[in-house]
Design brief:
heterodimer, B: 4 helices, about 85% helix, elongated
Amino acid sequence: MKPDFRKSMVWLHTYSGMVLGWLLFTIFFTGTLSYFNPEITQWMQPELQQVASSQNSVNRSLAVLHEEGVNADTWRIYLPSERTQKWTIQWRHGRDSHSLDLGASLGSILMPRETAGGNFFRIFHYTLQLRGYGGRYIAGLAAMFMLVAVFSGIFTHRRFFRDFFTLRTGKLLKTLTDFHALAGIITIPFCVMICASGIMIYVIMYIPWSAEHFAGGERQLSRSLSPGLSQLDSTAPKAQPLIDFSVIQKRVNQQWPGEKQIAVITFEQPYRASGRIIVHRVNEHTLSSQSERLVFSSHSGEPLPSYLPASTAANVRRVFFGLHEAHFASTALRWLLFLLGLLSSVLIASGLVIWLSKRLEKVKKRHIGHAVVERLNIAAISGLPLATAAYFMSNRVISLGVDNRAFIEVQVFLWVWLGCLLHSVMRPARQAWIEQLLVIAALCLSLPLLDIYQDPARFTRALFAWNSIYLGFYLFMFFSAFLSFKTARWLQTKPKIATPEKATPQIATPQIARLRAGRKA
Amino acid sequence: MITVVVLQFIGICCLSFAMDKHAKVVLAKRINQGFKIGMLITGWGSLTASIVWLLLTRDNIPISLVDWLAYLSLNILLTALLHVYFVNRVAH
């Protein structure tokens, strides 16, 4: 018999999405949050000041480095931006590394609280906290499954174009199915781009044999594809590094017109005559993850030969990397990408719920698989946002003097998430959904209030300085609280669907009993 | 960018009106072939105009194309929500 292509695609779509659905939801949700990685970090380090508009910041950094980083091998200056508000200097002697965060007023040094910040979500979404234990391989596999689910999903629609804008409201399952299809259509380019670029970032790791064959290893291949600068002579005579950066600044301005074009400045061997300065441009002008760079002498400020052009393969990979991380995105585009990321997460979540609902409609008696899917759905779809809210809360609750604060924050996230799984197993499904959603609402609502209670000056400072990032975080928390609360209320008021186990219920709720009595009468 | 977004929205709306099912809901009548072709031409024309306008007015073409695709997704969502609104209005 000739196999039915559409049926095969439906099967492929169902099970490619189903098998890794919870993992995909986790990766997409945390990945979506990491679009606002610096903004989240900024909120989680309220001690940081508005330093983006500081004047003469490079020379001020150099003055501190001349005092603190004497005879260091490397100096590095991370200049502040509106998104980070973090002005950091680093110096290194061999493997011994030090850093300082500078404040807006002259000579001030900030001591922001230790936190894993928004970077936790970024790292988690591709390592799953399993770096060194195959986390990146699992994430890569999930991306491949997602690509299969996206493409097979296109063929599962009987009337792809006819129903392009269809979203029927009324019955929950119909609305969910339509929304799943619509979200799928809208996010096709986004999902393809994100999954393909996610795979491309670690392509050398996923296909190690070619790297071994062509260059003798992953590192060697990377080096041969994108050659770095020449090795510095560490025995060269001593020389004093620049004190005034204006010589270089003039040259930089000629090359890169516009204000605030420098993101990072690295001094390599600053106390040697052979030392050099690498100036990295902000990467909002290119899709590539590698921003433009200029190289100068560290003691005379004269231009030096720059990087050799990277190979096409390396450039393609960098563009994919850039597309994935979207450093180039303006605020509007960043919000759009965030919205698309959320839509993709909802797409996956709705697919998981549809899978279960459709099967429960058909079967007379549930089996263990249904219960497992139902509980994992709750733990993933409401448990993950709850763990995220708890993570933010831990940032404000854990005492500032505690050692390993960042580690404890991450532990809070993971334990709360595990707690959500246990809670979903122990409680009836609907109650578990409602309770977890209500806890999310409570946490999201109390987070800004607790922040204001802890230090009202933070809020007033953000308000008067119109710090849109800090205030935006508050608003987003209020919105999340509202959304969670409304969903929980809706679930509470929604009449119970007769599940297979309760197809002929022995105990009816008072409302249903009254309805039945009315009908009989 | 506003011009591009508006042109995209017009384009997507026109393309949705060119579909029997959606046009029937919004316009509350069956559409004839002429109207359908007109909407198709206006829709694709508007989308083409939006991308041409983008290429002519923006310096950084690669980033602008990412912008264009992201706004296109938003406009499809908005058009779908608009259709939901019309469906509910007709139903009531």
